[in-house]
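Would you mind writing out the residues of a protein together with its fold in C-alpha cell form for me to study?
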Amino acid sequence: MLESLHVRNYVLIDKLDLEFTDGLTVLTGETGSGKSIILGALGLLLGQKADKEAVRKGSDMAEVSGTFSISPVVRDWCKDHEIECEEDELVLRRVIRTNGRSSFSVNGTALNRSEGEELGMLLVDVSSQHAHQSLMKNEVLRHVLDEASSSLILLDEYRNAFRSLKEAEEKLEETRRLSEKGAEEADYMAFCLKELEDADLKVGEEEELKEKLSLQASSEFIAENLSSSQDELRSALSSLSEALSSLRKAEKKDTSLVEYSERLESSSIEIEDIQMSIRDHLSSMSFSETEIEFMNQRLSVIQRMRRRFGGSVEAALALMAEYREKLEFISDSSEVLSSLEKKVEEKRKELLKKGEILTAKRKEGAIAFASRIESNLRRLGMESAVFRIDVTPLDEPGPFGNDKIEYLIAANKGEKTSLIQNTSSGGELSRLMLAMKVSMKDKGSVDTMLFDEVDAGIGGKVALCVAKELKELSSEKQVITITHLAQIASEAHRHYKVYKKEEDGRTISHISLIEGEDRVREIARILSGDESEISLSHARALLQNQL
C-alpha cells in the first residue's frame, strides 16, 4: 500500500508531501491544475520513462520518493534482487537531472528502469486510458482470466513442461543434425584418427629429438675435447700416484703429514672417478647413421601432424580424442536418437496432460468470472449487457497453453456478442475494466489500485454506480482515483484538491486535503462550476453520508 509521496522540483510542483491511507482517495481539480503531474510523478516511482524536460525550471534535478508497505510477494521479489526490507516497508526514490541522467533506488539499492517497472507492477495496479487499451491485447486477457480463475500455478507447471519439451526437441534436432553431418564426415575423421593414432604423439618428444640431433651435430668436437681431457687426467693420476708415494714415505718420519696424504689419496680417487665417467660418456656417443635417420624421420612426422592438426602436439591429441568421441557417437547414434525420440514423446504427452488440466480450470473459471463481470456491468448502468469468455483449442500447444481466450460482449439489448476489441466505446471500456477489477478484488497481490479517467464518457446515474463500485473495491484494496465527477468524489474517504497559484511570478501546483465546507464547495464546483446555493445544496446531499 502506498503510504506517502514526496515530490521536489517536478514540472509545476515545487514541493509536495502527501500521506495516504487505505480506503478510497480522490484527487480533483480544474483542468490543468496539475492532477496529471502528480500521476506522472507517481509513475516515475513505478518505472515509467524519465524526461529531463520534467525538471522544474531553475533546478538541476527533480526528485520523487514514496513509501510503500509491502506484501509477501513484493518481499520475495526484493529478496531475489538482494534488497533489504525492514518492517515490510520500501522507500522508492527516483532522481531526474537536467543532463538527461536519472537514477532509481529502492531502500538505497540501485535498480535499472526495467527492474523498477517490474517492481512497480507488483506495487500498484494502474487503470488509465492507456491501460484500457491494454484490454485489446490477448496476453493481457489471458493473464486476467488465469488470475481470476486461480490458474497461475497450473500455468507455471504447464510452462515448465512446455520448456522441457522444447529443450528435448532441440536436443533431438541437434543430435539428428550432428548424426547426419557426422555420417558425411565419418570417413575423413576415421582417416585422420588412424593417422594420429599411428603417429603415437607424445608431449615433449619433439624437443627431446631436437636436443639429441643437436648433440650429434657437435659430437666430433665434444669427443675430441673429452679425449684430450681423459689423456690429461691419466697423466695427472700418474703424477698424483708418485706424489702420494713420496708423501707416505715422509709421514713415517713425521706423523703430522698423515692428514695431507689422506687428502691427496681422496683427491686421486675423485679424479680417477671423473676420468672413468668421461671414458663411459665417450663410449656412449656413438650415433649410427640409421639412428640419426630414424630421429629425423620421427621429427618430420611429429612436425607434420602438428601443422595439420591444430599447431601443437597438445592440440593434435585433443583433436584425436574429439574424432574418437564423434565416431563413437556416430556408431551409437541410432540408439541415442531412439532414446531422445522416446523422451520427446513422453514430454509431449506430459504437456498435453497438463494443458488439459489448465484448459479445464480456465473454462470453469471463465464461466464464474464472466458471470461476475456481467453482474457488475449491470450495476454500472449496462443493464442489458451480455458478457462471456470463450476458451477454445489452438491448432498447436503454445507457451501459455492450448487455448484461445476471447472476451465477448453485447453492450446493448438485441446486439450480438462480439470481441471487446471490436465493439466497446471508451466509456464502456472504462466500466468493463472497473467491473473486472471489482470481480477480482479478492485476487492478486497488488494492494494499491490507481484509476485515471475511469469516469471517461459517463455521467448521471452511471457515474453514481461507478462511485459505489469504487467504494466497494476500496473495502479490499487501497483505491486512488483522479476524477472530474462529483458522484465519485463524494464517495471518497479522503479528498485532495489540486490547484495552481502564482507565486513570485511563477505558477506552482499545490494539493491539499479538504474536509467539511471546503469539500462541499469543491463538490459544488465540480457539479456546476460555481458555488451557488443550488450547487452547494446538491453537494451537501451527495456528501450527507460522509459529513
Remarks:
- The longest helix spans residues 313-379.
- DSSP finds 17 helices and 15 strands in the chain.
